[in-house]
Amino acid sequence: MQQVLYGEVPEEVIVEEYGLKYAVDLHGGQKTGFFLDQRENRQIIARHAAGRTALNCYCYSATMGLCMRNAGVQTLHNVDLSEGALQLAARNYSLNEVVPGEDEFLAADVKRFLGDMPADHYDLIVLDPPKFTASKRTIDAAIKGYKHINMVALKKIKSGGLLFTFSCSGLVDMELFRKIIFYAAKDAGRDVRIVRPLSADLDHSLSIYHRENEYLKGLMLYVV
Ligand SMILES: C[S@@+](CC[C@H](N)C(=O)[O-])C[C@H]1O[C@@H](n2cnc3c(N)ncnc32)[C@H](O)[C@@H]1O
């Protein structure tokens, strides 16, 4: 249950991060209404976006997309299943006076979208799915889920493309995530280089005694 414990919570709060404004829906938004943990990763992705044809999967309020637009991405598709998330995304674009291109916001299931998308179209793909498992009972299904979306993205991304792939399941640690990506790359038949590991930003410090709180991990991959 979600309720206000003290004071009044406005319908919308505007926050600023690295010069861009974002609307945060504290009442109805996901998590805190804003994915603070991805702050530095948004900057890393944007640094490589100029001139690229990008696909931002599981985009939520398109914060990564907006950073890519700001950095000069050539074309961009932001995909999310939630209409509410895409409304927030549109609000974020207008707050920053960025006009979305045709089909820049797409309401779709990512698994289906990846299955239907043509090969060799995108040269930058972000996969930032929701937590695929919160229980050891469903970890096998989660592993299969991560492997599948990464395998399809790796298979279809343009040669020379970049895949930024994340998992926020605490039960899937970096070692297991790397193994999943290894099998995804192998089954996709692609030569894949790890450019750098990615993690939650500095303000999400980790208890040395509690491995599962290292929930957000990612990899920046270069696909030869
Ligand atoms: C971890 S959040 C993404 C956060 C976002 N990258 C950011 O930095 O703000 C996961 C998103 O996946 C969306 N989602 C969940 N299942 C989906 C599906 N099957 N297809 C597309 N989007 C989905 C949720 O609506 C949510 O917005």
Describe this structure in words.
The protein has six helices and nine strands. It is an alpha/beta fold and 224 residues long. 31% of the residues lie in helices and 22% in strands. The chain has one domain: Vaccinia Virus protein VP39 (Rossmann fold, 3-Layer(aba) Sandwich). A seven-stranded mixed beta sheet has the order 5-4-3-6-7-9-8, sandwiched between helices. The radius of gyration is 17 Å and the shape is globular. The mean pLDDT is 95. Bound molecules: S-adenosylmethionine.
List the helices and strands and how they pair.
Elements (H helix, E strand, L loop, with lengths): L12 E5 L2 E5 L14 H9 L5 E5 L5 H8 L4 E6 L2 H13 L9 E3 L2 H7 L7 E4 L11 H18 L4 E7 L6 H15 L3 E8 L17 E7 L1
Parallel strand pairs: 3-4, 3-6, 4-5, 6-7
Antiparallel strand pairs: 1-2, 7-9, 8-9
Helix pairs in contact: 1-2, 4-5, 5-6
Tell me the overall shape: globular
Number of self-contained structural domains: 1
Spell out which ligands are present.
S-adenosylmethionine
CATH first level: Alpha Beta
The tally of strands reads 9
Reported CATH architecture = 3-Layer(aba) Sandwich
Number of helices: 6
Q: Indicate the radius of gyration in whole angstroms.
A: 17 Å
**SS strand fraction:** 15-25%
Euclidean distance between termini CA atoms: 47 Å
SSE series? EEHEHEHEHEHEHEE
CATH topology assignment: Rossmann fold
Strand order of the largest sheet: 5-4-3-6-7-9-8
> What is the CATH superfamily label?
Vaccinia Virus protein VP39
Helix content: 25-40%
* Unreliable segments of 5+ consecutive residues: none
- Please, what is the average pLDDT? 95
Main structural class? alpha/beta
Biggest beta sheet attributes: 7 strands, mixed
